[in-house]
Write a structure and sequence with these properties.
heterodimer; A: about 775 residues; alpha/beta; Spore Coat Polysaccharide Biosynthesis Protein SpsA, Chain A; UDP N-Acetylglucosamine Acyltransferase, domain 1; Serine Threonine Protein Phosphatase 5, Tetratricopeptide repeat; 9-stranded mixed β-sheet; 7-stranded mixed β-sheet; disordered N terminus; B: about 425 residues; Rossmann fold; 3-stranded antiparallel β-sheet; 10 strands; globular
Amino acid sequence: MAPSRKAPLGVAPGEEALIAVLLADSFNQRFRPITLERPKVLLPLAGVPLLDYTLEWLASNGVAEVYVFCCAHAEQVKEHLKAAGWLQERSSITVKVIVSTTCKSAGEALREIDVKDMIKSDFVLVSGDVVSNMDLGSALRMHRARREKNKNALMTMVMKAGTTPAQRRRLGDQSLIVAMDPQTKRLLRYEEVEAGRPLPNQATVDAHFWSETDSVEVRADLADTYIYICAPEVLLLFSDNFDYQNVRKDFVSGVLSEEELGQQLYVHELHRDYAASVLNFRSYDAISSDVLQRWTFPFVPDTNLLPLGGAWGPSSYRLWRNFIYKEQHLKLGREARIGHSSCIGMGTTIEDGAQVAGSIIGRNCLIGKDAIVLGSYLLEGVRIHAGAQVSHSLLCDGVVVKEDATVCSGSVLSFKVVVGQEQVIEQHTSLSLCRQLQQSTSLSDDELEYAAAGTASPPSEAALGSSAEASRPRLPGALEDAAAAPSDGEDGAHYDASLVGPDGAGYRWQPHEAEPAASSAVAAYFSIAPPPPGLPPPPDDFSDDDSTVTAAEEAQDAVVDPEASFKREVSETFLRCVRDGFEKKFLETELNSLKIAEHKDFADCARYILTTLLALCLPAPPRAKAEYRSLFPESAPETATPAGKTELLRRLQRLLNTWTDLLKQFLRSEDDQVDLLLTLEEFCGEEGVFEGTGEQCGLFSAVFAKVLQLLYDAEVVSEDAFLKWADEKAHAEAEDRVFLDKAAEFLKWLREAETEEENSDEEDEEE
Amino acid sequence: MPQQVQGDIEALCRKFRRRQIEGSLNTARATAELLRSLITRKGHPDATSLLSDVRIWGTQLQAAKPLELAVGNIVRRVLHMIREECQNEEKEEVATAKVAALSEKEKITGLLSRAFRQPPPRSASLHNLLDLQHDAAATAVPDGPAEQAVAAPSQHAPDSQDVAQSGAQRRRGGHWEGKASIIDQLNELVGELRDIDSNIALHAVEHIHANESILTFGMSDTVLAFLLEAAKKRDFQVVVAEGAPRYGGQELARKLAQAGLHTTAIPDAAIFAMMARVNKVLVGAHALLANGGVMTGVGSHLVALAAKRHAVPFVVLVGLHKLSPLFPHDPSVSFNDFKSPSDVMDFSMVAEVLDAEESTAGVSGEQLYVHAPNPVFDYVPPELISLFVTDTGGYTPSYVYRLLAEYYSREDYTLSKELLDTIIR
């Protein structure tokens, strides 16, 4: 063959053969209920399964060998790979499938790969949902050059530069704050902000970085592409740290926090190249439109590059004006209106008067007379009957929308759902033929968590046979069963008739509660429909009016101030143990591990245990999580009155009685105790981390001296510590001595008691 | 063996699709080399089977990259070679037959009908318009029924099918004899493709004169070779327009300057102003179409119009592997390639619309986007082109149809007509 003189993509020949590890599982549930029946990586994007985008991109970059790691629906993935010709020998890329059905995270998958001991050289780690046209060659060359010089350059993370907040919102992606060395591109700090949250107002960078480098670049415009070029040692690290689950959350932050080990991570910035990963329905929509707008060139429909045969058959798209892509053999009515950015697959019929815009229509679909399909994704064989309207929704294979029905934006209709005549499916509704089990506890990916259609419904005569048959749990990915379901449904199983109509089929699927995007207000930001303006409200764990503000603040200090986040961690750990009635021993262990994880000392823990105790005497602060709210008393005592003061102190006394031992465990020295007092002072003064938390800590300032007394009585703080604190404070400014003054009487009493004691000691000695 | 052949074709198709082979010259070379190796390896009992095989292979290759007309051109060249080879054989046959035993019938019919029997190969014109239609009808039927078409009594001159048939009768030992000559010719073709730029450059001194000012646009290897060749003998000045959004002109300007030419780089916007001062415009092309128009880098049409306005000769350098018998209005000409908009605008623009929607809240629903088409090619019509300089010399656009007749058989023009049928089955 002629040598390609300027191959646009690829690794120069003569270099070491490149290996890639592709994780064909998302390890999350964002694509439920679709992923119950088909793995996410086989979800078609503009007619082509996501997996093929990733594989084809790897292949065109000259990757020699790909290990495809399958967990859920492994059989389907394997079948697809076979059908699409990836497993053929003459294919230029060797695809090997690794199946492990037990893995629940990327970390476990990588450990499994490490155990198999197959990878000896640098490799590319991607997930199966990456759509990219980047040139791996340049990133790889830089990675290898760094590795030549420094064996500790473990990983190069590919990031897309110039990602604006609006862009993140469009992609439903997390915000990211990255600090790096602008010269070497070494990653110094990596902070994720949950998707949709505002960027924090502050970011801290350790000053010691400047001892190593002249300048540090802090960037908020980088977006992680989920493409990593890794050294083989990365696998070892995953094996060594068996608790690493997630590549970014655990591995990256782990390596960065253990800087003294010398391991380094680097960043490769993408400017013009495209790279994005389908994380949720929002990014599915955004990336689909990017594909149609050709940002992913050459991975666009009309290059017909992607499926080289197989179940989907070779494609024959051509580009027409206004980014309309059409395959051969379409039946388009004369009066059918095809709008901007649409893609229509083979065998589809669009009848007169129908309107299609901004949509991707799969093969063998039918869009009836005067039906309207806007911004939606119809996979294979979807039938939209006359007069129906579908906007900004995802309709899987075999979905039927009957006459004059409406599917509102943000809906997801899983395989073979039928929407009855004139029914209206409301916004952000998920429907599936699989019925959701009410009590599901497991969070594992794509595991069996649903009953077969008809199980939980009262069996009618006609359904008796089928529901008995169907009451055995269905195997994940058993499409045959799903195929059988609609026939059950026609006369048997009781679907949510109020939802899909008497002639419909389907159950409502509630997003899992543990998912961050649970509430419908938040769901709007991660759905197929275009995101509403502004930032999403935070997950509403509580219903206060000011929740939006405070929770946003919480998110901020979670990132900005490690101290505040540590405080929160301690108090949450404590509250959890209180709520669940753990033994003190366990609580101590938990706190200890937290202390080690966060590089804190005993005093730090003790301080926040105390403040949590104090807080427990008051009504729950607005920021407390709903699950712990019950631990707090209903109302605050009226501290202006003596009775109120006594009440407050009695509450504290009760708590101290229980927890003194624990506190003592964490107060190892006199200095620790002094620290504790200083914190108490801050707490009562609502300073530092306690500032603006909305906790009514100020109430304690009225009884400050009494609190000291209680601590003294409980032998939490020794008298020496008190005196030391008083001495430290004695020379402070007037405003800093407010609490010292309040405690003056107590201190005086303490001193007297001491002298008396000394006196008596002396007397004893004298005797 | 057939599997291996198919495997090789698929491998090249995959390379085409993945754009691992870019540019018409590389594509043409890859195609020619693959065809050479396939023809060498696979056995063919006669010319007809070889023709049909090459046609099918060629269609597959062309379908993998419809944009690159050079693939089809090379395939048509090879088909033409095979047909010519057959014709030669037939001529020999007739000659020997004449010597051996002149048929009675031949004697009676006389000169006129003999002239009909062996018309010289001609291109499409009014004189043989009827032949043309007949051929089109014959070739519209895929290769399978070709035999039937031959079997039908032919009132006209023996077309190539007859020729192929007669060649088929001359097979020996199960292999068609003419193949060796085809492979020789293919070797020649590959060699020709290798030297094509330098062959074009040979004509440089005839077209560039001393102290001239030459304007060029974008990056073209052919233009670079041409200018460098001319610079050996002449002293002249080059003005290079940068050719946004890919800015190939900047690369060309750098290379020319490194070679010691007087080079001026200008932005595209300055082309019109500059045109008054130049003596000639030289550009490369992606494909030369049957009507004498060219597909060339986007923006060239502007340059051609500016040249016309200032009466500056617009010269296109084009290797004959780019000569295509297709017309620009042909539905099978996939005319343009739309690349990623990232060359034109920033990716963040896509999302800015979301902010805009906020300000016009309530209007949302229909998604608004900034659309940034980024085409690669332009079509320059023949009336704007003064001259083509090819590896075999200079031609005017009106002469292109003669070149077509020289390199391709009329029957093969419609190669791509079956393209979709073959691909979709």
